[in-house]
Each structure stands twice: as structure tokens, then as C-alpha cells.
Amino acid sequence: MGMLKNLIENLFKLKDNNTTVRTEIIAGATTFMTMAYIVFVNPAMISQTGMDFGSAMMATCISAAFATILMGLYVNYPIALAAGMGENAFFTYAVCMTMGISWQVALGCVFIEGILFVILTLFKFRQALMDAIPDAIKYGTACGIGVLIAFVGLIDAGFIVGHPATLVTLGNIISLPTLLAAFGLIITGVMLAKKIRGALLWGILATAIMGVFLGVVKYQGFVSMPPSMAPTFLKMDIAGTFNLGLLSVVFIFLFMDLFDTVGTLAGVAELGGFMRHGKLPKAGKAMLTDAVGTCVGAACGTPTVTSYIESAAGIASGGRTGLTAVVTGLLFLATIFFFPLIKMIGGGFDAGGGAILRPVTAPALIIVGSMMVHSVVKVNWQDYTDSIPAFLVIIMIPLTFSIGTGIAVGFISYAALKLFTGQGRKVSWIVYLLAVLFIARFIYLKAM
């Protein structure tokens, strides 16, 4: 036992980072508790594309475990990874359900994006691309995705339904599933306000238990052998992505992955005291881990795997090394034996008339959406050449149910406003190139 402890201390340099095995284990468990909601939410979302729910759950857990453990062993950072919220919404609602692309081809787009991310990381091109994209577009995209995710949550809860005259309207808020979602929203919000760790997960579990008592959620068991991954494993269609209409899809996945990763790494590194003279040591290794995780996730059957800001919970608990990440990854791996519980919580409820409600996971979507909107304060609202494109991105993403369309409108309007107000030289040529490509994409899609 002593030899194992010494091996772990030497492998993760615990003494150099002023931490202990016990502290790292607690930190790893804390991080897992704060982000375990993805195990329920991701398969519930992406299975709407026709993917097998059990296989989607397995892909979620296996890819998160692989990427998080890799981060711990290869980079020695206490940062966990899993399928990204926002990326899975784009995958499900924009690419598959709106554009009509099969989930196999969509996974092919994710895999190609992961390969491009690897290349950009190895050749250090990522920084140039990051620097070229305007802040207004970055912040607007984060906010727009947040509004879209919250919108989906409101639909899943039954708060919002379709209407022939106004497109959407208030649903039957006194129905049991919607009341259950309202209960989940309030109890989760209270726990967040009281800064209870793992509030999203505890909120989901509390809502599921209440749902069982109300008869909305049907108890299906607790543990079982893991379901098969065969329905989604290596089913991505790479060849199907090689046409003009899907180039923008690959780019948007890459765009979202880049910003998620860079933003998360910067945030948790600042909290953990990892920054050195304003730069993050081993940033290249961390980015490479993220990129490889995305490729593995696509191969397993889940959209973009990315670093999670919830890692900050483990860091706040004292986690300072990769041992924290390894513990989190192992807990994701153990989760595969709880498939009946996950299916019970993440599965849909037939509300009649073709409507499928997900009242247990809907509150988490609404709250995660609200968390993503905080970037709106960073937009320069005094400069109309920044604020108008940012606003168009924010409003177009939920109204068109397409993250890609929102980003495209943002780039086109930003380039045009800067150019025609005499600020054209302040804008990178990359922005103009992307604007032209997005215009070509709209023309192509209209001609199809």
C-alpha cells in the first residue's frame, strides 16, 4: 500500500503541488458530482436524432472517462472533459433535426473537426484563428447557445408549445409533467443559490424521485450490466461530410470547440493558480487532449468532447494535479453500470399528440442556458458595429434553431458594418474570408 501511495505521489508530483492523495480524491469526486448531469442530459438529447439511448449513454461515459483520465495522466491537470453542452444542441437540433443530416454523417463532421483541432494544435495555428475572431461574435455565440438550450428545456418541460398563429405559446402549466419540471427548476435553483456542490445533479435526482411519486416517471431499476455500444460505435460516416453544404458544419463544430476549450482552460487555470506570466504551461498538451477526446467521442457515438468549467469545483476543493482528473474519469467509467437509472431519468415521457416531454432533465437545460448568457455583459454595447452583430447572433440562434445560421449572420453583419464604417482595416482578413464563405453557403443551400 505504501509503495502504491509513493508511486501515485511521484507520478502526479503531489508534494510539489502541495496536495495529498485524500485531497485529490475528494476533489475528483466533487468535480464528478458537479458535471454528472451530462450522463443524463446528453443521451436524452442526442437520442432524439434516432441514436440508441443506451449506446449514447455508453458513448457519453466512455468518452468522458477516456479524455479525463488522459488529461490527468498526460497533462497532470485537474481538468475533466465530457460531451459539451451547446455542441450537443447544435448536433441534435441544428444539424440532424433541422438540416435533416443523419446522425452518422453528423458524427463524421465531429470526427473531422477533431482531426482538424489536432492539426491546429500540433502546428500552433489555433492561436491565430482565435485572435482573428471578434469578441462580439465569441460572446454573442455563447449567449445565443445559452438561449437555445434554455428554449429546448422549456419545450421539454412543456412550458412552451407550438401555436399556428404565434409560432409558440404557453403550454399546459398545470399538467403533472410540467409541474414536475417546475418543481425541479425551483429546487435546483435553490440549491445553486445556497452553493450546494453538485446542485444540478441533486436537482435531477430529486426531480426524478418526485416524478416516481407522481407517477410521471416509471421506476425501471437501479443497476445492470452496461448496454451495448454496437449501435453507435464506429458508425460515423466520414465520407458523407465531404460536400460543400457540410464544410460550414465542420467549421462551426471547430469554432465552438476552440472557444469552449480556451475559455475553460483559462478560467480554471486562473482559479488553480496554474498561470505563469499570463500564460498556461502545457496549454498545447491540454488542447491536444481535448482534440483527441473529440475524435474518440465521435468514434464511440457522441458529439464534441470538451473541457468542463465544472472542473473549478474540484479545484476549489483543493485539487491541483491530474489525480483529481483520474478519479473523476474512473467515476464516469463506473456510471455505465447504472443504465436503468439513467434511462429512467433521461428518457422521454409521452404527453400525447406526438409530444415527448423530458421533465426531469429539462430544468438542468434551462439553468445551464441561464449560466451561458452571462457573457452578454462583455459585449461592447456602445459600439454598434460590435453590438448589432452580437445581438443578431444571440437572437438568430434560437429563432432559427440553428447555431450555424446565427454565427453566419454574425460574421456577415460584422464584416459589412466594419467595412462600410471605415473600420475595415481593423478586421482580420480571416473574418472577411469566413463572411464570404457563409454567404456562399446561404446561396448554395437556397439553390438546393
Can you summarize this structure?
It is built from 19 helices and six strands. It is mainly alpha-helical and 448 residues long.
Q: Can you characterise this structure?
A:
The chain has one domain. It is mainly alpha-helical and 448 residues long. The chain contains 19 helices and 6 strands. The protein has a two-stranded antiparallel sheet.
Radius of gyration: 22 Å
Helix content: 55-70%
SS element count, helices = 19
Low-confidence stretches: none
Helix/strand order: HHHHEHHHHEEHHHHEHHHEEHHHH
Class from secondary-structure proportions: mainly alpha
> What is the beta-strand fraction?
under 5%
Q: Please, what is the average pLDDT?
A: 85
The domain tally reads: 1
Q: Can you count the beta strands?
A: 6
For the biggest β-sheet, the strand order reads 1-4
Largest sheet: 2 strands, antiparallel
Terminal-residue CA separation: 66 Å
How would you describe the shape?
A: globular
